[in-house]
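Field log, afternoon session.

UNIT: design team B
ACTIVITY: writing a sequence onto a fixed backbone
BACKBONE:
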């Protein structure tokens, strides 16, 4: 799933390639992708792109046209992606069983496709007058890389929480943009168990977690800066130290990276770095092993 660093890189890429250009048409190919109907996608025809923003994991393409200010907001979900094309195929794509979900064509012949792999379709596109009309955007917590999101703000955010820190980091209404992969990376950098309760964090641990979060995300954004959209997935994978690396040696201590599996996801961690050398039970309701 694309998370904050990849979506931020896509935002920068689209800001460079889209702003100032005119949209020829926005064509939903998969019935499930469009989550709004008023305004319709056709209201974007002839509109000029004025900016590209990111809200957590949401991309927001702002436009101005005959219908006024409109926003094309996208959430790529778990298996969605954006593919930029300097020259789009001619004609209109036909709905089918392929990965193509939506095509945005520019009057110059270039544009982008939104695709989604697999059979579970969660990629979402909204055409709205204000991004705040999208429920997922409206409920977002603060951006972890925002200049005003300092240690005091992070401490205050966690002060009322009583749950495992892994779940808190992934809660978009608490902190926007962090998913399964980067929460694993942040906790490894902070040398903290994913099952540690937030209410048990000491001030020193909270500070270490904040620093790990800012550093991990900031470095990932920096690595992705300037990359073409097609190279971002490979860059994300290559930069991960523990997530998705079950059975490999920890790059910090050399211990074997272990995994805890859930119904629809898994987490990875290093026992030596994070749990005092003790492996976590591979069950959803595992108790904390300090």
């Amino acid at each position: 799933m694309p998370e904050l660093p990849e979506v931020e890189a896509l935002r920068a890429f689209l800001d460079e390639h889209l702003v100032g250009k005119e949209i020829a048409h926005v064509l939903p190919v998969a019935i499930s992708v469009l989550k709004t109907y008023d305004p319709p996608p056709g209201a974007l025809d002839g509109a000029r792109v004025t900016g590209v923003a990111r809200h957590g994991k949401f991309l927001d393409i702002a436009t101005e046209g005959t219908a006024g200010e409109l926003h094309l907001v996208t959430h790529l979900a778990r298996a969605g992606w954006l593919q930029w094309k300097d020259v789009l195929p001619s004609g209109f794509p036909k709905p089918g069983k392929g990965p193509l979900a939506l095509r945005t064509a520019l009057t110059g012949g270039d544009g982008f496709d939104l695709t989604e792999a697999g059979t579970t379709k969660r990629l979402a596109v909204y055409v709205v007058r204000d991004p705040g009309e999208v429920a997922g955007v409206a409920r977002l917590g603060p951006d972890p890389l925002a200049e005003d999101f300092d240690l005091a703000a992070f401490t205050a955010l966690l002060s009322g929480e009583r749950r495992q820190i892994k779940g808190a980091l992934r809660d978009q209404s608490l902190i926007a943009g962090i998913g399964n992969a980067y929460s694993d990376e942040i906790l490894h950098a902070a040398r903290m168990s994913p099952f540690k309760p937030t209410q048990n964090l000491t001030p020193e641990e909270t500070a270490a977690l904040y620093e790990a979060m800012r550093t991990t995300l900031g470095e990932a954004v920096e690595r992705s800066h300037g990359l073409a959209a097609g190279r971002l997935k490979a860059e994300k994978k290559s930069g991960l130290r523990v997530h998705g690396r079950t059975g490999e040696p920890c790059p910090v201590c050399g211990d074997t990276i272990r995994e805890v599996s859930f119904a629809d996801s898994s987490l990875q961690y290093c026992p030596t770095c994070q749990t005092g050398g003790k492996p976590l039970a591979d069950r959803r309701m595992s108790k904390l092993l300090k």
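LOG NOTE: The mean pLDDT is 92.
NEXT ACTIVITY: expression trials, pending approval
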